[in-house]
Amino acid sequence: MFTLFKVSPKFPKIQPVDIKVIRLYMSKFEESLKNFEELQKEGIRS
After folding, report:
1. What pLDDT shows up at residue 6?
2. What is the reported pTM?
3. How far apart are CA 22 and CA 6, in angstroms?
4. CA atoms within 13 A on the CB side of 15
5. Per-residue pLDDT reduced to its tens digit, 1-46
6. What is the spatial distance between Cα 36 and Cα 18, in angstroms, rounded to a whole number?
7. 37-46: string of b/e by CB count within 10 Å (b at 16+)?
């Protein structure tokens, strides 16, 4: 018999995440991408 909504041991439990932390992480990631693009442009010029 199959029971619906039974917790499966295969799936990890979902942890609550703070949106502020994600926004901070994303902004840092975007900033590092911009820096990387600038470094690449400087590398092409020289």
Report:
1. 66
2. 0.51
3. 30
4. 3
5. 556 666 667 777 777 889 999 999 999 999 999 999 999 998 887 6
6. 27
7. eeeeeeeeee
If you count them, how many residues does the chain have? 46
Closest C-alpha among 12, 32, 28 to residue 20: 28
Instruction: Tell me which amino acid residue 29 is.
Output: F
Q: Mind giving me the DSSP string for 1-46?
A: -PPTTPPPTTSPPPPP--HHHHHHHHHHHHHHHHHHHHHHHHHHH-
